[in-house]
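FAQ: What does the model actually see?

It sees only this:
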Amino acid sequence: MRYTVGSDESLSPHYDNSEITLNVNLGIDFDGGELAFAAHHSGGSSTCREYYHEWRGVGHGVLHLGERVHSALPIASGERENLVVWMRSTEWRRAEGCPMCGRTDQLL
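And it is asked to produce this:
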């Protein structure tokens, strides 16, 4: 993924077609571009929290559930590159269904 000011600056909220996603900062020079995770209830609390991940350097990554709604906030300056790896499990999908549609009948 590449984000640049004046072009692809952000990515709208979405979830991934994966069980687990690995997102690694490959660098370049940028400001902003935090990874935002949608609000959820934590620890039985009635309050919802939204989480933001600030990139801390080349090689720093985030491992998260693909079903978790997230977005890339706009970069303020520079250019950001990330390596995104979607990890899928055939065994999990046969038991739980596709994370996008929930179906098991069309899995190969």
